[in-house]
TrEMBL record, chain A:
SUPFAM superfamilies: Thiamin diphosphate-binding fold (THDP-binding). This is 2-oxoisovalerate dehydrogenase subunit alpha. Its cofactor is thiamine diphosphate. The keyword Oxidoreductase applies. The branched-chain alpha-keto dehydrogenase complex catalyzes the overall conversion of alpha-keto acids to acyl-CoA and CO(2). It contains multiple copies of three enzymatic components: branched-chain alpha-keto acid decarboxylase (E1), lipoamide acyltransferase (E2) and lipoamide dehydrogenase (E3). Pfam families: E1_dh (PF00676).
From TrEMBL, chain B:
Its cofactor is thiamine diphosphate. It comes from the Bacteria. The keyword Membrane does not apply. This is 2-oxoisovalerate dehydrogenase.
């Protein structure tokens, strides 16, 4: 197999780290389903099949200064930006120590200021204008950071996508909009979602380049996001990147996808599963040896086991902590 | 002390805050070169440049959402909705996002934005340039809603809103913009958000209201005083969260309370004030709590006859005050 990563300036070590992050995201996701099906956690929203795009993109950003606004399937992105397995487990167990929300939000609603992971909500695509606002602040302050925001193809129909994209286009702001097109918005397939052939067709309306690329190939995603990041930092404005992939699981643990798609279709998509295709790549290019792979799997399992145990034992927030942090706590009496 | 108009107090507060803190910037429709459709931002584009007095696309959800994003990384945005009526496309951003950012992140993130919007009728604005929209937001913990009545309060409260650590909706009565004038010091001062202000002391009846209606109540109170009836006028100033202490204190003192709003009556801000008094002052009351408000129709019509029928005025307030005093 041809070594493609050298040509785009990626070392073996970096490619290995990408694969490891993808694998970690997948194994965490699988564990969450087990925990859900065994009655230990109430809810899972899954990112299986989307790890390549997430990790490829995250590695193309400057993880020491860029802001990310992930959506609810982006375990791979938040891991790459510094959220730990323990923190993710605390989140799904809704424990007080969860850094995303202290047990207030459903899983997947990421947020962690120290890693510049911007807090997110459930109404979809509201984060696009936020990313644009962060990019506006970067431009105003002449800072070098950019913002990176993700969303699904269904979400690209929301007004906030269009309003945010247009605003970014008008003011040439350093923001990357990445659509994770996993073919389904819960049950509704992409051909019932988009009037255009592609999400990226929408870019021209907002004065930015738009690309549709293989979301199962982390190297291709890396390349396009890197170029978009460079453009943004040069002051050349926003980019829309549509990454094509397939949602391998039901929408959430509360969804049964057998009612709207066939098992054959899912099985066919699994042949393109980036965990399989990218594993083949790293093995055949000699980046990952059998020995290293076995060690990696063992380490990841141990990490997840420890995180799961820790999170399961950790305390919930006290009931009355529900009252905290409606407003800033530093205010004087009478101003609340 | 200089006497200036309500809208000039808005401009003065904005200018002083932008001079004080380089993180403060403004965004909205027509606020730049044109200086705003009401001229609230006049001269600021020239003084601070197009980046800090930013003309946005016609896109209210983006105005709110972009402001939220910038606020989360340390800026102090002041967004303008051209009319309060046009805030509707931004409601998801304001309620689902701004109001919940601190809470949902367990105090990790915050969202110190101000959204200014002119509201209110009596200017031939018909259904979509006259509305009071505060009730839509007045049950959303995480938000604060300020609705000042005088130029002095406008300046002190707008500066406080810009310095506040949480999202503030700042509604300015558009009929007050040029019709209401008052003394405003050139000094830097802030007034507390969340505190009502007793605009006139009196022992016989209490009128609790906000915005332009405060002036109608004050005018009526002077007429009643000639007949020996002393009305206390409480200006809520912040309509959410409410200053329960001042409300209860005045209601208990006079025992007769009239609540006035230009908004529709049902589910309005004064309905909540009424509930607070009912819960706390039952044995102090000498008359049923009275509410004077707009009729239950969607919004005020254009024709002057129908607009006047909807709109609050000093005569309506005076009549209601006399009836209550005589109860």
């Amino acid at each position: 197999m041809e070594n493609r990563h050298k040509n785009i300036g990626l070392s073996d070590e970096t490619v290995l780290a990408m694969y490891e992050t993808m694998l970690l995201a997948r194994r965490i996701d699988e564990r969450m389903w087990l925990l859900n099906r065994s009655g230990k956690i109430p809810f899972v929203v899954s990112g299986q099949g989307q790890e390549a795009a997430q990790v490829g993109a995250a590695f193309a950003l400057d993880r020491s200064q860029d802001y990310i606004l992930p959506y609810y399937r982006d375990t791979g992105i938040v891991l790459a930006f510094g959220m730990t397995v323990k923190e993710l487990m605390l989140f799904v167990f809704a424990k007080a120590e969860d850094p995303n929300s202290g047990g207030r939000q459903m899983p997947g609603h990421y947020g962690q200021k120290k890693n510049r992971i911007v807090t997110n909500s459930s109404p979809v695509t509201t984060q696009v204008p936020h990313a644009v606002g962060i990019a506006l602040a970067a431009k105003m302050e002449k800072k070098d950071y950019i913002s990176f925001v993700t969303f699904g193809e269904g979400s690209s129909n929301q007004g906030d996508f269009h309003e945010g994209a247009n605003f970014a286009g008008v003011h040439k702001l350093p923001v990357i909009l990445m659509c994770e097109n996993n073919q389904y918005a819960i049950s509704v397939p992409v051909d019932k979602q988009l009037g255009s052939a592609k999400v990226s067709d929408r870019a021209i309306g907002y004065g930015m380049p738009g690309y549709t690329i293989d979301g199962n190939d982390p190297l291709e995603v890396y390349q396009y996001v890197k170029e978009a990041a460079d453009r943004a930092r040069r002051g050349e404005g926003p980019t829309l990147i549509e990454t094509m992939m397939y949602r391998l699981t039901p929408h959430t643990s509360d969804d049964d996808d057998r009612s709207y798609r066939t098992a054959e279709e899912v099985e066919k998509a699994k042949l393109e599963d980036p965990m399989i295709t990218f594993r083949t790549y790293v093995k055949e290019t000699g980046v990952l040896t059998d020995e290293r792979e076995q060690q990696m799997e063992r380490d990841i399992q141990q990490l997840i086991d420890e995180a799961t145990d820790y999170a399961e034992q950790a305390p919930y927030a006290k009931p009355e902590q529900a009252l905290d942090f409606v407003y800033a706590e530093t205010e004087q009496e009478g101003t609340r | 002390m200089p006497v200036i108009s309500y809208i000039d107090a808005v401009t003065m507060a904005l200018r002083e805050e932008m001079e004080r803190d380089s993180n403060v910037f403004m965004l909205g429709e027509d606020i730049g070169k044109k200086g705003g459709v009401f001229k609230a931002t006049q001269g600021l584009y020239e003084q601070f440049g197009e980046e800090r007095v930013l003309d946005t696309p016609l896109s209210e959800s983006a105005i709110a959402g972009v402001a939220i994003g910038a606020a989360m990384v340390g800026k102090r945005p002041v967004a303008e909705m051209q009319f309060a009526d046009f805030i509707m496309p931004a409601v998801n951003q304001i309620i689902s996002e701004a109001a919940r950012i601190r809470y949902r992140s367990n105090n990790d993130w915050d969202c110190p934005i101000v959204i200014r919007a002119p509201y209110g009728g009596g200017i031939h604005g018909a259904l979509y340039h006259s509305q009071s929209v505060e009730a839509i937001f007045a049950n959303q913990p995480g938000l604060k809603i300020v609705m000042p009545s005088t130029p002095y309060d406008v300046k002190g409260l707008l500066k406080a809103a810009i310095r506040d650590e949480d999202p503030v909706l700042f509604f300015e009565h558009k009929k007050a913009y040029r019709s209401i004038k008052g003394e405003v010091p050139n000094d830097d001062y802030v007034l507390p958000i969340g505190k009502a202000d007793v605009k006139r002391k009196g022992d016989d009846i209490t009128v609790i209201t906000y915005g332009l209606c405060v002036h109608f109540a004050l005018q009526a109170a002077e007429k009643l005083a000639k007949d020996g009836i002393e009305a206390e006028i409480v200006d809520l100033r912040t309509v959410y969260p409410l200053d329960q202490e001042t409300i209860i204190e005045s209601a208990a003192k006079t025992g007769k309370v009239l609540l006035v709003t230009e908004d529709n009556k049902e589910g309005s801000v004064i309905s909540e004030v009424s509930a607070i008094i009912a819960e706390n002052c039952l044995f102090d009351l000498d008359a049923p709590i009275q509410r004077l408000a707009g009729p239950e129709i969607p919004a005020m019509p254009y024709a002057p006859t129908m607009e006047k029928y909807f709109m609050m005025n000093p005569e309506k307030v005076e009549k209601a005050m006399r009836e209550l005093a005589e109860f």
